[in-house]
Amino acid sequence: MKYTVMIITAILFLFILPISVTAANQTKTDWLSYQQYKLKATIQTNINIAKTSTRARLEMLEARTSLFPQQTASQSILSITTQPPVAEKNHELAFKWYNPEEETLSYRIDAIVQTTPATAKIKTKVAFPPNIDREKFSLYLEPTELIDSDNHAIKEKAIELASGKDDLFDVVFTIANWVHQHINYNELLGKEVKKASWVLTYRQGTCDEFTSLFIALCRALGIPAKYISGIAYSNIISAFEMHAWASVYFPGYGWIPFDPTYGQFGYIDASHIVLKESHDAETKAIKLIWEGSGMEITASQPTVLAYLIETSGKRKSPIEIIPSILFKRTGFGSYNLVKATITNKNNFYVSEEISLAKPNEIELLDAQTKHILLKPNEEKQIFWRIKVKPDLERNAIYTFPLIIKSNLLSKQLEFKSAYKEPIYSLSTVNQHIPEQLLPKEGGATLQCIAEKQTLAVGESSLISCRLKNNNPFPIEQLQLCFDKECKTVSIQSGEEKVFPFIFSSKTAGEKDLTITASSEFFSKKIILTFTILDEPKIEIADLSYPEKVEYNTKFTISFTIKKLSYKNPSNVKIILKQNKYKKEWSLKKLETDKQMRISLKGSDLDPGTNHMSLIILYNGKQTGAQFTISLEKVTFFQRAALFLKKLTKAFSSVFG
Predict the structure, then answer these.
(1) How many domains would you assign to the chain?
(2) Do 643 and 508 reside in the same domain of the chain?
(3) Measured between alpha carbons, how far is 198 from 459 in angstroms, rounded to an integer?
(4) What pLDDT, on a 0 to 100 scale, did the predictor assign at position 24?
(5) CATH value at residue 580
(6) What is the CATH number of the domain that holds 307?
């Protein structure tokens, strides 16, 4: 029998790495490839002026900002202009307007900045814990409102990450890498910056939260770290935007940059432009001072625009990569092993991001991108376990290209696969990985935590579900279901993913929410119970009273205080008003309907028609009922007694 053999070279779709950017002129620029970059950066802020009075006046308005390009070791300010003109005051730029009539004012800062990739060149081991003058660095060691490094969970995690380490760079690298891998970037989180302890619990945030948590973990170990506000190029929006990263103090070397959001540890790319350094994540960068009255004045968030002007001088890769593949030829459905031997060619520490690009016909069992720290002249190995998909064309021979890429270097290798070639098992591949680098067998875990489990009707709660695969193999086609909403996910060996959900309810009461994760090898169910509270509400029901009574008659006013809400009304005050006099009763909390019986006598009333008011106050609200009771057949002596009683009450109220 004759058949035709097809020769197929798989197409490799290269992914864009976080260091690749598109400048305003649509040129693809690598922000680490060149020695120098010249950029133009523009920062503009609007000031909104609203009158709150018909007599409003504004004689002078001054806006002071500390948010503008700074001179640093890796950043030179070639020129800076402002509109309107400005004078620098104590590291601030002050803009002034006199008798402005506009509803919106704005100021603009234009700067030509020359940057270089900021790379630490630490040649010797710096001991951990660091030997520093704690008083001198106290501002960058102490906890703040948002960087709550004194939080117990923060301290516990920091100690765990630093356990067994005595090299400061190794400790800080481990912290940055952990934050980068375990915190989920969520740009929908909102403008309010969350506390570091919140980020550790819910495992999500933007650059502000990534940086705050990283700094908190460092400070918890006695490592000085400061918060940097600036701008940087974002691949998410393909433009420059406001960004935050950190700077860590290394004794003998100074302040070293770490960007846990971008995965740049001990270096930052040249798109980072420093605008402000501070000890906390939310220090006010704009101050408004004015003379006048009847005005409400606010400043908007600054908008940024930046573009690349020119580059100069190519940089060389600080590392060498030697790629290899375990099996040159495999069958369909076979496992294989890619190895990268990474060598630091320098006499200083090097931190690198190493990634593997592969065709779609290849499944990846391990994380595609890995971060590695190399000591001076050190050599390390990185491994990726891969698998050829089993359902390929039987009469074809496939050539699969693979690319191993670092910040400044890429190396290609390939292997072939055909139907009748040997099929290698995962256990065979695992035998070629050093035991300390092999993921340990441990199943999978699912943990879900709600930001709050007591909510108002219509209020939302953020739920973070953390799924970790502790197996030496990936989990494919895993169904993750939140209530009735399901999504199919895959998770690599040793990988941890965080999935955010939003829960809310339109009705009050106890609500059980079921979250499940299931696949061929894994099944887990979590039930979270929420208490949904509505606005407290009370109603007066079953009001009963006699319409007519006599002087010696004993009678009862009865009613039910009905609890109409799920939430318990509190600080309940029951008031019975009779003409100018009143009686009060109090309840700390109304947990169920309560029947009330108020016993009175005819002698408690005035002759004729008595207008009665029943008022219930609770939680700043009020409900009530009005009715009348007539006191009839009052004799002369009874009237005299009532008059004296009334007179006694009047004297009592006047003289106490």
Answers:
(1) 5
(2) no
(3) 19
(4) 35
(5) 2.60.40.10
(6) 2.60.40.2250
Which two three-digit tokens encode residue 100? Answer: 């402005």
Domain containing 109 equals 34-117+285-314
Q: How many CA atoms lie within 13 A of 52 on its CB side?
A: 8
Residue with tokens 């100074």: 254
* Two structure tokens written together for 197: 């302890």
> What global pTM score does this model have?
0.76
The answer to whether the CB of 393 falls within 8 A of the CB of 420 is no
Q: What is the arithmetic mean of pLDDT over 492-511?
A: 87
Residues recorded for the chain: 656
Q: Domain for residue 24, yes or no?
A: no
Among residues 31, 109, 34, which one has the least CA distance to residue 70? Answer: 109
Beta bridge partners of 325: 338
Measured CA to CA, the distance from residue 433 to residue 427 in angstroms comes to: 10
Same domain, 265 and 329: no
Query: How many whole angstroms separate alpha carbon 143 and alpha carbon 129?
Result: 18
CA-to-CA distance for 195 and 281, rounded, in angstroms? Answer: 9
Judgement on whether residues 422 and 333 belong to the same structural domain of the protein: yes
pLDDT score at 421: 94
Helix 207-220 / helix 152-162 crossing angle, nearest 10 deg = 70
Residue at a domain's end among 533, 568, 601? 533
Look up tokens 């290698």; give the residue: 424
- Position 464 in a domain: yes
CA distance 40 to 456: 48
Task: Note the pLDDT tens digit of each residue in 316-335.
Answer: 999 999 999 999 999 999 99
Instruction: Pick 46 or 477 by higher pLDDT.
Output: 46
One domain, residues 174 and 97: no
> Are both 345 and 411 inside the same structural domain?
yes
SS3 195: coil
- What is the side-by-side order of every strand in the sheet holding 460-469? 444-450, 460-469, 496-504
Per-residue burial over 562-588, b = 16 or more CB atoms within 10 Å of its CB, e = otherwise: bbebbbbbeebebbbbbeeeeeeeebe
Count other Cβ atoms within 10 Å, centred on residue 614.
21
Residue 391, CB-side half-sphere exposure with 13 Å CA sphere: 1
pLDDT for residue 441 is more than 50: yes
